[in-house]
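Why run this: before we spend reagent on co-expression, it is cheaper to look at a predicted model of the complex and decide which construct boundaries make sense. The entries below are exactly what would go into the expression plan.
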Amino acid sequence: MLRLALSYLFRRPVQLLAVLGVGIGLLALLAVLAVMNGLIDMNRTAVRGPMSDLFLMPAASAELPSYEPYRAALEGLPEVEAVAPHLVAFALFDFPDYVVDLSDPSYADLRGIELIGIDPEAEAKVTGFTDLLTTAEKMPAADLAKPFTVAGQVFPRPGVLVPDDFAARMPPPPQDGIVRLSFATLPAVLPAAGEDLMPHNAEVHVAASYRGGDFRSRLDRVYMERSGRNGMRYNLLGSKSADFTEILIKLAPGVDFVTGKEAILAGLREAGITPPGGAAGGVLETWEERSATFLSAIENERRMVALVLFFIIIVAGFGLFATLSALVREKVRDLGVLAAIGYSPLQRGLLVFLTGAVATAIGAGLGLFGAWQLYLGRAGVAKWLEESFGIVVFRSDLYVVEGLPAQWDPQQAITLTALTFLLGLFFTAAPAIRAALLSPVKALRYE
Amino acid sequence: MSEASPILQATGLCKRYRVGSGWLNVLKSVDIDLHVGTVTGLTGTSGSGKSTLLHLLGLMDRPDQGQILLRGQAIHKLRSSASAKVRASSIGFVFQQFQLLEELTAMENVLLPRRIACGSQWRSRKTQEREAAARLFEEVGLGERMRHRPTQLSGGEQQRVAVARALVSSPPVLFADEPTGNLDRKTGEEVLELLLNLARDRGTAVLLATHDMAIAGRCDSRVHLRDGERVEPPA
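The model came back. Tokens follow.
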């Protein structure tokens, strides 16, 4: 039966178009999804940036929370590997050595920064902070152990770390080589109604730059020491400000987010600290939850692309249906002869079903193999497109992407190949049933 | 069952088809017996019901009335799959148009009924079946053309292959519907001679539908149909 099915399938080259249709449909789906996977992975890395596994923002309390009890409670948990405090504030800045007209609307959205106070040693244990420093391009830190130290200061001022992009936009430094920044933040506690609102000002020096390029915020992030003589509290926010605004938590290896969260909440309760969440406010969230809007947007994009491309396979399935229907019509007399020599209706149906199954299997196999080959040779394809036609798949000056990112997901590929095969079988069913129900007498009389 | 008992016996066969709003009675209570090793000629004008009778006896269609017994067993009410099994094991067909499958070689065409009859045992019996089929090819004079496709064979050769296919399972009953109708007289004579000799040698009961009175005259007995009724054959 297989021999006959194969000979029916390969009888005419045009019938192979149905096979190719299935193959090309699956190839397109798998190839585009591989690129989408690569883009998403790249985006996730970029979105995560230096983010830790979990973020804890404390519940509201009568007094501003102190970091120390939190640190003690969290570091005592086996599920937690390390913690680091952040003191986050938003500030306006200026370059005091240059006159910039702040009333100029074109500068309006360039003058704000997110100022993050950190404990460098703790930060390095929790996030990819050190990597950000070592991969900086504009102003690499001279001493990774003391990144906030500014060389050549005559009048010592606190040092800050700025992203590479920010460093690229900075005016050239004056003769002493130190770029100065003036910061202004709002006080931690707002004055009563009617009283003057006075921002806290400070002048800082740019110590080094770090590799930026995450999508989390439109504002530039500037790092500063959280505490001490050069810290944010002493120089900008004042002693009435919070000790910290959030705690970054790195989970121990093998601890998943759910288990980690449960352990942390229990640990805080045990230490007598009101856990975040509920009426008390505060939040304990994963980095994915914090970036949920963006991540779900790109995930939705992948789903939409997959859905649209799957329609190609459905169209190819219709092609298979049309081909097999034509085959049954063309082979009516053969089916009558087979009935006469003893093929049962089921066997006649199986013959057509087998023909369709072989066509689908070959098509799906070709699609899978082609997509895999395309994935392996993607760099060559991108190069060929660029050299032959001047087509750049992803322009690095427009996208945060170099070359043609792709990630092959074997489970995804096998699932979609199996789905394609099942879809092909579905479209094969109708012609097969028709062949089975064909009256042998009518079939033999068919001209 | 005695020696004289027919291998296939049909009694009171009726068949009608709907034509427009009315019915057309194609067969009207036809009786027929086929005996081992005998050739029965089935004659009648076009539309007399010859092909319909062959289809009913060959279990390709069901009679509206009447019964068909094969070796004394009723086979006219079998389900489609059971009918197919009976056809595979006990009935051979030779058609006017040869009806070989173009995609298969002559040998593969001849082996088709054996594949169905052997079912899951085909793999173990393959060599044996091929050898038997090759011997049959020698008997029909096509020993050198087993690997040819039907399109590479002449009409006479194709019909010889069709005869080999019909007899490869040594069925007790063979139906031939105008087997020489598409061949020139000389070739038709040769093919007919071959068919009758092989069938008689194997003790196969043959029902041979034909327009040709000369061919009918060479049969052991005759059944003549007129407007769906069995009547005395013309002299």
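Residues 122-139 of chain B form the longest helix (18 residues). Helices of chain B lie at 50-57, 80-90, 106-118, 122-139, 155-167, 185-202, 213-217. Bring this page to Monday's planning discussion.
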